[in-house]
Amino acid sequence: MESGNQSTVTEFIFTGFPRLQDGSLLYFFPLLFIYTFIIIGNLLIFSAVRMDTHLHNPMYNFISLFSFLEIWYTTATIPKMLSNLISEKKAISMMGCFLQMYFFHSLGNSEGILLTTMAIDRYVAICNPLRYQMIMTPRLCTQLSAGSCIFGFLILLPEIVMISTLPFCGPNQIHQIFCDLVPVLSLACTDTSMILIEDVIHAVTIIITFLIIALSYVRIVTVILRIPSSEGRQKAFSTCAGRLMVFLIFFGSVSLMYLRFSDTYPPVLDTAIALMFTVLAPFFNPIIYSLRNKDMNNAIKKLFCFQKVLNKSGD
């Protein structure tokens, strides 16, 4: 719809994708494989924890919830990426863009809060083991899990509502492979300084969350190193090594994406960081939680055995 020299934007065009003639199909199948692996891997972890009563404790309940969130976190962006890779026009509707931003960042916020909860859980388990059962009660764990999701989805809602009311009347090209806050805000035909202030607040929140988790793990490592027996140290390290790796991958990619020293990166580097943030980090999480965890491996094997028994009984 025209208004003077300006037209109302009804859709956004992604410029971070290669064109079909430049071989975008070559990226389609690797991305499809990674997405399928992420979904199946996290479903296995979630189902294994739910089915195996030996894993019904705070640590594994948090892991299963994290895997559940990861499924939807990647689903918020990757299916649209796959669609755009095989389309001539790399587009998304305005409403689709706002919904993608909301669910992607809300799920990411929930995961960040949950990782903080998991760090605190390991801190209590290793630094105060005698009071662990008294502190980390099933009721508290349920409240922490629910609180992570509720707070994660509520904190971004006002900002997305404000962005959706902004006028978009100029260029409609998003220099990225998914809808993100800053690239979309840069296309608005009005002053967005108040919303950008919220982004600064979010950046400070990311830093504070990172420091809380980092200090928790520093304290955990300090306590572990004081354990006299090597077997005890190894056992203690094994309970938190996976969570520490996930923490480093998650917040490392978040920092590269949002805590930048420069406003602009070269397009290739920008796309590479986005892929690391949205695709590669979730890809490694099921590997870390399954391959490096004996209890989880056993639970997944039991899940497959249970499925075989059901198939035989059905025959």
Q: Biggest β-sheet: count, sense, barrel?
A: 3 strands, mixed
Examine the secondary-structure arrangement and name the CATH architecture: Up-down Bundle
Q: CATH H level: which superfamily?
A: Rhodopsin 7-helix transmembrane proteins
**If helices are DSSP runs of H or I spanning 4 or more residues, what is the number of helices?**
12
In total, the number of domains comes to 1
CATH C-level class is: Mainly Alpha
Which regions contain 5 or more consecutive residues with pLDDT less than 50? 1-5
Q: Give the distance, in angstroms, between the N- and C-terminal Cα atoms.
A: 61 Å
Secondary-structure element order, as H and E?
EEEHHHEHHHHEHHHHH
Describe this structure in words.
InterPro entries: GPCR_Rhodpsn, GPCR_Rhodpsn_7TM, Olfact_rcpt, Olfactory_GPCR1. This protein has twelve helices and five strands. The chain is mostly helical and 315 residues long. It has one domain: Up-down Bundle (Rhopdopsin 7-helix transmembrane proteins). The chain has a three-stranded mixed beta sheet with strand order 4-3-5. A two-stranded antiparallel sheet has the order 1-2. A hairpin with a 2-residue loop joins strand 1 and strand 2.
Question: How do you describe this structure in short?
Answer:
This protein is mostly helical.
Which terms summarize this structure?
sensory transduction; single chain; mainly alpha; cell membrane; membrane; Rhopdopsin 7-helix transmembrane proteins; olfactory receptor activity; 315 residues; receptor; 73% helix; three-stranded mixed sheet; disordered N terminus; 5 strands; 12 helices
